[in-house]
Amino acid sequence: MSVDINMSVTGNSPEALNVQQKLSSALGLLGIFIMTLSGFNIHFQPKIVWVSLSLIMVLAGIFWYSKVSYAHKTEGIKNDRIYFKSLTNRGFWAYILGLALTGFYIVLYFYPNWIGLSSEGENTGVVALFDPLSKAISGNAASQWFVYGTLYTLAIVGFGVKFLWKYRHNRYQRLRTFSVMFFQLGFAFLIPELMSRLNGDNFSLPYYNFINIWPLNHYNFEQYRVDQFVNAGTVGIGLLIFGVLSILIITPILTYKYGKRWYCSWVCGCGGLAETAGDPFRHLSDKSQSSWKLERWLVHTVLVFVVIMTTAVVYSYLNTDKYWLSGTAFLISVASLLTIVFTWTMVYKRQELQNDAKYAAIGFFVVILSLLGLHFSGLIDKIFLFEAETLRATYGFAIGAIFSGVVGVGFYPIFGNRVWCRFGCPMAAILGFQQRLFSKFRITTNGGQCISCGNCTTYCEMGIDVRAYAQKGENIVRSSCVGCGICASVCPRGVLKLENDTPAGRINSNEILLGNDVDLMDLVNQNK
Amino acid sequence: MGQEHIVIIGNGISGVTAARHIRKQSQKRITLISSESEHFFSRTALMYVYMGHMKWNHLKPYEDGFWKKNRIDIKQAHVSAVDHKNKELQLESGEAFPYDKLVIACGSKSNKFGWPGQDSKGVLGLYSKQDLESLEDHAPNKEVCKRAVIVGGGLIGIELAEMLATRNIPVTLLVRESHFWNNVLPSEEAKLIDRHIREHHIDLRLETNLEEIIADDTGRVKAIKIKETGEVLECNFVGLTPGVSPNIDFLKSSDIELNRGVLVNRKLETSVEDIYAIGDCAEQRQPIGNRPSIEAVWYTGRMMGETLAQTLCGNPREYKPGQWFNSAKFFDIEYQTYGWVFSQAKEGHTDFYWEHTDGKKCIHIQYEIESRIFKGINTFGIRLRHEVFDRWLTENATVDEVIKNLKSANFDPEFFKSYEKEIQNKFQHTLKTTSL
Predict the structure, then answer these.
(1) DSSP string across A289-317
(2) Domain of A297?
(3) What residue intervals traverse the membrane (chain A) (predicted)?
(4) Average pLDDT over residues B113-123
């Protein structure tokens, strides 16, 4: 209906920024502009002054913008006019920003020489502009990754402050945001850079970001890194063991206690960017049943891919018999682990799985084990039909670069801020599996208070139709939920609460809501 | 023999809940008739579309394919009369539409109290999808609408004020009572909300009534006149929000017994066989407990729908609402209520009130003095657990138990500051001073 269209874009008054918002945006963009100019080899000297100046301008621009946007308003939910703004309603500026971000990622991943990376000799351009900063922190010249890391951290810290202002009435949101800012600045950015100061002629650690856990960090167990770990003695071995324990022991325990939110919306760098710089786009996620289906297939396929890829890569170097673990022993361990998880799920959690999930799990399991079996029996040469290197390169390109970077962040203004986390991240798939089947976390609904308004669903960045559960009085226990808590914040009737409690009764489903007399509730619940 | 055909007039929460539950339990043919919108939407969320928090599609709790999948037929039509002798509906298009059983769930319309000029252009309530569209026409921004006047200090009035404020339109809110919603809220809470309204730069006029609405030559509103002072306020939009009443004019030609609403018994049956009424438009012949005989509330509409579905599917049930509850949000302040808190405590009942120093959070409890039985609580800015209060009310818990175990009923998000200690201290202190 034409009326709908008019209402949905609410017509004729696209939202204009006020003078201070314009000035602050201009200040931030000027900072970016200085960096861009340096990319065209305009020589800013001294570099340390200009790099600091440009970074400070970006940060100051964001702070100023946040202040004029929120400081004069009362504390509370500030989603007014989101759907009238071009930038946050897939308008002209959203596409411009999307293009700029995708362009940036393409250059970063595939043409770093365009921004001045030089493998021999001095850096030029943007990378050179960041040289003094890099030298000050790590002692080395900058790489494109240093530039990226700096801008990434800047975005999380800057827009983190904006988010803190916006949600200043909500302690859960504030603590969570301090947490992602802290982990990004400290663990993901400064500590790895400082650690590289320890590197010398006979001691060298790979660049190690503690919070970037395999399989999100899909290259963590590649040969060059493992060699470096092993050669770096106790510290290196310690880090290697930490990397293995992270995924096998630490994350399952924390996810059992708190749900996957401890990682996805409190610690993870991808989540950190999504929750801060990506927050203005969270409502753009697709809420349809069909996108949920796509999500389940896609994210688990990526998980299977990364398991296969990593197994093949590790096997390929262990098979050289240079390490204490033999390739065969490794393959048997992987097969055993998969068998244990598969059997446990099918025996104890079968009734909680949808049919398509069961078929997919059985399918993947049988194929992986058959391939391993065929390899052992000598029938096929390469364990997963392809060279380990082919798998590694394909994963790095298609998933590591295109999916998580170009699409994941580049498309924020079009598909929302969690495209990668929802459809692609294998870490999220593992944690989600644990959260769905083996965790104390759930979102509880408050009796019969839901009015089906749809704020929770609209602002769910993971595209969960929260309202569908809330209006039935059913707890929300979804593997994709990152526990950001925004649904509970935007609910105008106080219906939703993120909780950790005993696993028993976590997945309830009352067909009738509180408020009616008890006989009727019993009757309808029986009749289901 | 074909399946029985159940026709439901109105696709709001009552009618849709009835339809869904009938489908769960039977294969009956179901038709939902509405002239307002093709699909069910959340009426309570209309405001968020105008405020730009959501788009129209977000208001729909079910995907559009849901209805077909569940074989619930949708008919966009306006019913002009009910012919119960022939068991058919007269539609505005001239079509006659037959039914086997009829459910009237046609909701409310905005009240108008015969003010001069009340039918001018730019004067409307906020109830329907069409109202929202009309609001968008008359008050899209502060250039077109230089000032808006809202008449009526209730839930819809304050929502409309909040909406207009997000478009930077200056708003004057006329409230008949001495404080906002003071006919329902005790004065303490009503004053708290007064302050919050003014904090949002709304021109709140208490104990102020509308005299007349003045239109220009084209019939468009240009000003209003205030009764008490005779002051004339120029404005381009008038929101009339002094409550709603059943939308039953189209039934006046039928034999269905009507009062203010469609009269029903506890089984939600009207005076005519095979015709039922639920939701806002139904009027109980005998009020149930403290409840008004017409309950225009989302939750009660839903409960009536659930109950009637049982009856229609062969499990005759009476409408027996459980403990009263409700909720709302006043700008930034959330409100929930469980049990009954009256603006003046009933005889033999007394109050306990606690307010945070920030003036934005409070709880108000009423209980029986003699037995100390807890009767109800209003809570502002603190979320409380429905389940726990429902149990306390059903078990006739005393106020002392409620205060002592208040923490178990807290529903605020994790890490929020909690105020139970402070509340308990104040309660102990009040007990001491009153017993002296």
Answers:
(1) HHHHHHHHHHHHHHHHHHHHHHHHHHHHH
(2) 289-426
(3) 23-42, 48-71, 92-111, 145-165, 177-195, 229-251, 297-318, 324-347, 359-380, 392-415
(4) 95
